[in-house]
């Protein structure tokens, strides 16, 4: 009776255990999918909402960015118009002031005043240079007495040539634009400063939740709509620079309040446009869905309790039969000897495991390492487990009778290791088994390691490996092989193993399909020095479109990198930085990179794929050569556009009395420079082109009309009929009247019938 009660109690405990497990299964089996689906739905809902908001915000930001870039362009065009004035160049080129220069200063000041009167946002314009002691604004000032000393300081060491700055001017917020330019014939650098009213300039952003920062994270502008919501705008720049915002959008935590930010970057203005909104308002539907999921999970747990109670009794029946069979196997009859049925089953499994362990006991050292990468796991440690290694060698029939060892590493460059390669390696070393024992194992798809136990001197071993390489090369296999220094102790195998792998990395400098041998590795790391002056020289030669000199500067930079094994990743980084600075030069000169294959993503991928320094240098030189071609094409296209614009103006106004100054003013160039590029592009001077158009028009009027010579002279832009006749006779070798008579006689002859 007592035994039955004891068995009943054990079965009840077991049934309770089954109930707990079934409840866990139902809870996880139903509740977990509901939870995952709900979380996925919340995530998708949130992502969709944020995607829609992001697209809308980016559209607004792009519109505002383009609008303000247009404003910047107008200011920059104003700067170009002033730079195109002879007055500025004559003032910069003067050594001492004369009455003429005073007149030029007054003329320049009046032009500044006229520009300010037409632009209600602009408050002041200055001009000064680094040579002369005066500043020209609405009038002339000395630099010492000038009211805006900060502008003189900001203009020093200008880089880039056009800069935008937010600052205080006489307790008033202004946006200052500084344009620098230089006189080619001297070291004089001129600067134009435009001060724009801060509030008027950004007035169109006030109604949006928009803020502006520069590349350094400094705050430039916060709209009124956003200023009332942000808790600490002053710390936002540090948060942006900390990298918490991924790509162009993301969630930022400001004083424990989440905000969703979308941003656009203006390369023209060198500033960032940020659309900032409270995150909780944007994801309100997702929060409601989360509450619904919590309620659903409560229902799931209730159902799980009910189902677990129903099925625990049903599912326990086969478990009790298994328990009875286990008792019979253990020879315990029906009398329970264990705390519960599970303990009994575990005892049976442990008994079987013990029997299995006895079978494999004598191989327990070697078996864990007879898998792929097993020797790598053993040899890559700091010290070698001699017992494990010896057991593995016995299992693999590797002879350890000699006291001389060597390690080699092989990289197959053009194929992955396959059965054909394995067979050829096996045959090669089997033929030489009498005097050279080799243990081979693979690291990945293309690398294999060789451990030699041989009495051969290292020179003879090197010859054997050269013969192996030649044999495999003849089969079409390219391989790079590194042979370490010989050693005599088994304990030195891990160090030699690492030595061989490091030697193999030398193919970055030596090249692929070579044997790297007798090259000790230095223990002391040397700092890698990069000559920044040579980098600046390289970029200057690129701007000058002198590829030969740029390549020479690049060779000087890379020469110092040869053999710096510890700095291979840093060498790639230096090459990427050089390429990035070349791209920046192209962008500064407004080269259209979309029509070329140049992009930082492609450059980064190509540099990372380069396996040797020769490939790396070749890629960078190719990029340098392509950049010089793009710069040359951009310069030629710019000149062609200017010439077409000049021709169009001449064709529209040649009938009037126009001067070279009138024409050059249209394209914002000096008359001398315009004349030079016009002659180079067309082969004729501007005067010759105007004369040709006028003579063509005069010829048409003489032939097709009865206009007087005086009227034709006026219609073709000549002030006096004498000048017209002189140019006409020089061009056609006869007077206008003679030309009309000759043309009339020729036409009469054609009308006489034969």
TrEMBL record:
Keywords: DNA-binding, Membrane, Transcription, Transcription regulation, Transmembrane, Transmembrane helix. Pfam families: GGDEF_2, HTH_18. Signal peptide: none annotated. It comes from the Bacteria. The chain crosses the membrane at residues 20-42, 293-316. PROSITE patterns: HTH_ARAC_FAMILY_2. The keyword Ribonucleoprotein does not apply. GO terms for molecular function: DNA-binding transcription factor activity; sequence-specific DNA binding. Residues 644-742 form the HTH araC/xylS-type domain. This is AraC family transcriptional regulator.
């Amino acid at each position: 009776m007592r035994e039955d009660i004891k068995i009943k109690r054990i079965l009840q405990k077991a049934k309770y255990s089954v109930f707990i497990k079934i409840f866990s299964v139902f809870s996880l089996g139903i509740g977990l999918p509901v939870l995952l689906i709900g979380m996925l739905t919340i995530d998708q809902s949130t992502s969709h909402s944020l995607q829609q908001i992001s697209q809308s915000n980016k559209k607004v930001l792009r519109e505002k960015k383009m609008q303000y870039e247009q404003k910047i362009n107008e200011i920059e065009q104003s700067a170009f118009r002033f730079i195109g004035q002879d007055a500025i160049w004559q003032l910069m080129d003067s050594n001492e002031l004369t009455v003429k220069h005073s007149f030029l200063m007054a003329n320049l000041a009046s032009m500044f005043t006229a520009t300010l009167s037409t632009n209600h946002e602009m408050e002041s314009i200055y001009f000064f240079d680094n040579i002369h002691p005066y500043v020209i604004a609405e009038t002339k000032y000395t630099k010492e007495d000038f009211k805006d000393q900060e502008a003189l300081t900001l203009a020093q060491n200008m880089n880039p040539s056009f800069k935008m700055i937010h600052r205080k001017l006489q307790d008033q917020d202004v946006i200052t634009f500084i344009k620098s330019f230089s006189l080619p014939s001297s070291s004089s650098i001129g600067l134009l400063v435009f001060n724009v009213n801060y509030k008027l300039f950004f007035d169109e952003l006030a109604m949006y939740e928009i803020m502006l920062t520069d590349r350094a994270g400094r705050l430039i502008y916060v709209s009124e709509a956003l200023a009332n919501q942000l808790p600490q705008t002053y710390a936002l720049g540090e948060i942006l620079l900390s990298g918490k915002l991924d790509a162009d959008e993301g969630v930022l935590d400001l004083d424990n309040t989440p905000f969703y930010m979308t941003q656009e970057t203006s390369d023209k203005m060198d500033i960032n446009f940020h659309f900032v909104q409270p995150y909780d308002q944007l994801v309100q539907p997702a929060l409601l869905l989360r509450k619904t999921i919590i309620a659903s999970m409560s229902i799931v747990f209730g159902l799980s309790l009910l189902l677990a109670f129903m099925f625990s009794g049903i599912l326990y029946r086969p478990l009790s039969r298994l328990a009875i069979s286990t008792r019979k196997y253990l020879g315990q009859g029906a009398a329970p000897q264990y705390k519960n049925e599970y303990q009994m089953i575990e005892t049976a499994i442990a008994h079987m495991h013990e029997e299995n362990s006895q079978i494999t006991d004598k191989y327990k050292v070697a078996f864990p390492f007879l898998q792929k990468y097993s020797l790598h796991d053993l040899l890559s440690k700091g010290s070698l487990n001699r017992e494990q290694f010896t057991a593995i060698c016995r299992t693999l029939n590797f002879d350890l009778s000699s006291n001389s060892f060597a390690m080699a590493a092989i990289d197959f460059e053009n194929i992955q290791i396959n059965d054909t390669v394995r067979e050829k390696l096996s045959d090669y070393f089997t033929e030489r088994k009498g005097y050279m024992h080799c243990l081979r194992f693979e690291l990945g798809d293309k690398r294999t390691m060789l451990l030699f136990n041989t009495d051969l001197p290292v020179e003879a071993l090197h010859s054997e490996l050269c013969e192996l390489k030649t044999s495999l090369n003849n089969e079409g296999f390219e391989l790079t092989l590194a042979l370490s220094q010989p050693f005599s102790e088994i304990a030195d195998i891990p160090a030699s193993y690492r030595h061989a792998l490091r030697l193999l990395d030398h193919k970055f400098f030596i090249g692929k399909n070579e044997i790297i041998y007798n090259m000790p590795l230095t223990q002391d790391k040397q700092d890698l020095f990069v000559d920044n002056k040579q980098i600046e020289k390289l970029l200057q030669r690129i701007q000058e479109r002198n590829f030969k000199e740029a390549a020479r500067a690049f060779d000087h930079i890379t020469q110092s990198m040869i053999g710096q094994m510890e700095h291979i990743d840093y060498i790639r980084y230096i090459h990427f930085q050089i390429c990035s600075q070349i791209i920046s030069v192209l962008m500064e000169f407004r080269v259209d990179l979309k029509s070329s294959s140049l992009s930082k993503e492609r450059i980064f991928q190509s540099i990372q794929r380069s396996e040797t320094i020769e490939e790396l240098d070749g890629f960078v030189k190719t990029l340098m050569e392509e950049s010089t071609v793009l710069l040359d094409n951009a310069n030629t296209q710019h000149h062609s556009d200017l010439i077409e614009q000049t021709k169009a103006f001449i064709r529209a106004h040649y009938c009037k009395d126009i001067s070279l100054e009138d024409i050059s003013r249209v394209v914002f160039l000096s008359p001398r420079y315009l004349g030079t590029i016009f002659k180079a592009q067309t082969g004729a001077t501007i005067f010759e082109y105007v004369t040709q158009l006028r003579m063509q028009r005069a010829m048409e009027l003489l032939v097709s009309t009865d206009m007087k010579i005086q009227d034709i002279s006026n219609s073709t832009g000549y002030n006096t009929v004498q000048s017209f006749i002189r140019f006409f006779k020089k061009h056609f070798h006869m007077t206008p009247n003679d030309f009309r008579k000759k043309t009339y006689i020729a036409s009469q002859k054609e009308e006489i019938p034969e």
